[in-house]
Amino acid sequence: INKNYFVIEGNYGIKSLATCFMRHQYLERLRRNISKQFKRLEKKRFKIYFRIFIWQCYTKKPTLSRMGKGVGSVDSWVALVKMGLIFLEIFSLKSKYIVQGIVLKAIKYVPIKVQFVSLS
Asked: Which whole number is the average pLDDT over 80-104?
């Protein structure tokens, strides 16, 4: 049994329903939006855990270059998100429906299909 497919650190999680490379801009936008929504409700009573690491570089050639001549320069850094992986966990003492509402507002900024999961 792989532990990456279960909620471990928090009460709630966000599970991916597709495989993709996720850029750090998407993860930062997601974190900011969730933090902003939680800070409106409660101060310092939530915790966000990311369970993926940005480790792979994504290269891209300039638009006017021709074929060949090697690899282009680094465009951004990405993390591999596999299908079924819980890549973000949230610890909060609020009810499930409040947290689910916050997460459903925030997942608009993620480029893949995701699902809200809870520990219980």
From this structure: 91
Quick check: 94 and 42 in contact, CB under 8 A? yes
With tokens 């819980």, the residue in question is 86
Yes or no: say if 96 and 10 are a contact pair by the CB < 8 Å rule.
no
- pLDDT tens digits, 32-47: 999 999 888 877 788 9
Partners of 80 in the beta sheet?
A: 21
Structure tokens given for 58: 């994504």
- Residue pair 32/88 in contact by the 8 Å Cβ criterion: no
The structure's pTM equals 0.82
pLDDT tens sequence across 42-84: 777 889 999 998 999 888 888 777 777 777 888 889 999 999 9
Element (H, E) at 118: strand 114-118
Among 109, 65, 118, residue whose Cα is nearest residue 89: 118
How distant, in Å, are the alpha carbons of 44, 68, 92 from that of 74?
37, 16, 37
Residue 37 near residue 105 (C-beta atoms within 8 A): yes
